Amino acid sequence: MRDLFKKRILFFGGKGGVGKTTCASAMALARAKEGKRVLLVSTDPAHSTSDIFEKPFSREEREIYPGLTGIELDADFEARRYIDRVKEQIAKLFSPSILKEAERQIDLASTMPGVEEVALFDRMGELMVTHMDSYDLVVFDTAPTGHTMRLLRMPELMSSWIEALSKRRRNLMKFGQNIEQAGPDPDPILATLERRKERLEEVRVRLMQHNFTGFVLVLVPERLPIEESARTAELLRDANVNVCGIVVNRVLPDDLEGDFYQARRRQEETYRNEIRRRFAGYPLTWIPQFETDVYGLKNLERISEMLSRPDDSAPLR
Amino acid sequence: MDWAEIRKNIGDFFHGMALAGYEKRLREQFMELNDLFMLMCFMELVGLPNPASIYLMEIYPYFLEEFHIWHRRMGMDHSPVGTLPCC
User: Fold this and answer.
1) What is the structure's pLDDT at A22?
2) Domains of chain A, start order
3) Under an 8 Å CB criterion, which residues of B touch A?
């Protein structure tokens, strides 16, 4: 897992309930203890980072441990903030009568499905591009897989859509010049579209910058999480996102006694082998099942240590 | 009116005769392209999902004037879209 420690942005993802938040929090804590400035971002609408740290997070950055800043993103709030910012921007440029009508149109658009998602993505992009000077590491604790894949594909989708729009606009402007229909030069609409596209492009490049950004898949040794993680790894590879580690969480310890445990342990063995086979080539880390469930700093520290082992030597084989 | 001006007017007259039809077609095409662009920006008004609607909010104000020209050109004195009141 050492390779993982060179990354500046880490995404933790996987099927629901496998321990993404635990691993993301443990990683953030491990790095903060090394003296790094770490930002832990929860993007799951059902936030649980504050429950793990037993400290309140908010939708703005807030220090939760020396060197560790946390933030729980709220999609509704981000959408409202985005819209307010747009209104503020245009307020400087237009007359009140135009503004009134434009704001009605904006309010209509803001009720469209998907607006919250794009606003959330926009905020994540902002953190990834503009906050890298203030933090050594940004850790994203993501929502279950489907949601995350959509978010990762967003910059590509959006920038091609905006590119199509600005291409049309450019053609239109060229055409207009020929018949003396040209408006103001440079065209403010085209300029706005292109500024947008540049921002999206920055996020896209960052997501695919392998030595900078990595995705950690978390799974448990069970049938469904294995299948889903294999699919996700493939999708991420197609999207040219670097999968820099696999964490196998809640592995049964070897030294248990009793027929029940032995039977479970034998079944798990086949899954362990399958994980080794299907995720060959990815750095694997094995985290054992604990005698209690994981919350609070003390338990997190145990996992932090396991994640920070200097090589791939697993606590369990 | 001196001769130079008369000559220029005659020149413009023939120029217009020769090119008016051509220019009319160009203007029509320009308008059609413009309609397509407007449709792409205001897709939600006709019930189509617009993936980038949040990124288009910033340009709505620029469009209001064009929208006015459009609905007049379409032969409608008033805005046909209730949510986009124009005149």
Assistant:
1) 92
2) 2-74+132-153+213-307 (3.40.50.300), 77-118+160-202 (no CATH)
3) 23, 26-27, 29-30, 33-34, 36-37, 40-41, 44-45, 49-64, 83-86
Does residue A216 sit in helix, strand or coil? Answer: strand
> In this predicted model, what pLDDT tens digit does every residue of A254-304 receive, in sequence order?
888 889 988 889 999 999 999 999 999 898 999 998 887 777 888 888 888
Residue B15's identity, in one-letter code, is H
The partner residue sitting opposite A171, judged by closest CB among B33, B44, B60, is: B33
CA A305 to chain centre: 23
Q: Which of residues 234-273 of A touch B (CB under 8 A)?
A: none
For residue A66, the tally of other CB atoms under 10 A from its CB is: 8
Task: Work out the number of other CB atoms within 10 angstroms of the CB of residue A302.
Answer: 13
CA gyration radius for chain B?
20
User: What DSSP letter does each residue of A277-303 carry, written as one string?
Assistant: HHTTTS-EEEEEPPSS---HHHHHHHH
Closest chain B residue to A184, measured at CA: B62
Are residues B40 and A165, on separate chains, in Cβ contact within 8 Å?
yes
With beta carbons under 8 A apart, name residues in chain A contacting B53: 109, 112, 114-115
- Using an 8 Å Cβ cutoff, are A120 and A71 in contact? no
pLDDT at site B34: 83
Whether residue B29 and residue A175 make contact (CB cut-off 8 A), yes or no, is yes
Predicted-assembly ipTM surpassing the 0.85 threshold: no
Q: With beta carbons under 8 A apart, name residues in chain B contacting A179.
A: 23, 26-27, 30
H/E stretch holding B15 reads helix B3-41
Q: How far apart are CA A121 and CA A151, in angstroms?
A: 6
Query: pLDDT at residue A133 above 90?
Result: yes
Q: CB neighbours of B64 closer than 8 A, spacing ≥ 6?
A: A98, A101, A102, B86
| Boundaries of every domain in chain B | 3-73
User: pTM of the predicted model, to two decimals?
Assistant: 0.83
Do B53 and A109 lie within an 8 Å CB cutoff? yes
Instruction: Over range A104-112, report the average pLDDT.
Output: 82
DSSP string of A93-117, one letter each residue: TS-HHHHHHHHHHHHHHTTSTTHHH
Confidence check: pLDDT of A33 > 70:
yes
Nearest-by-Cβ selection for A179 from B23, B44, B55: B23
